[in-house]
Amino acid sequence: xxxxxxxxxxxxxxxxxxxxxFARRFSEVMGLIRNSSVVLSELACGAxxxxxxxxxxxxxxxxxxxxxxxxxxxxxxxxxxxxxxxKGFLSDKxxxxxxxxxxxxxxxxxxxxxxxxxxxxxxxxxxxRSFNLETW
Length: 136
Description:
The chain is an alpha/beta fold.
């Protein structure tokens, strides 16, 4: 991976934390690593051990954090409305992908690449808004 700004999605960080699955790939990442405030929130919400909270706090301390803007929030609702109309998704599924839409739109605003292992949802979002995506 080469690029300017990189945002790791929650799925990649969780896979890495649980299994060290992406150790080699993390070491090969080129670019400026940035957090997504959405990802940090998801990680903290799902933390079950003190070490996991420490990991979130370490990420927040060591890498600048990008946060969805007001426009990103409004646009996320428009994207989700289009997905609901096209795919017939119910509210539960829309809630499940809302944070992914926010991550994608924030990355797009900064010209960043989202790195994820959640290929299906992010490729779906890409059909509605273009953004840089890499799947692991």
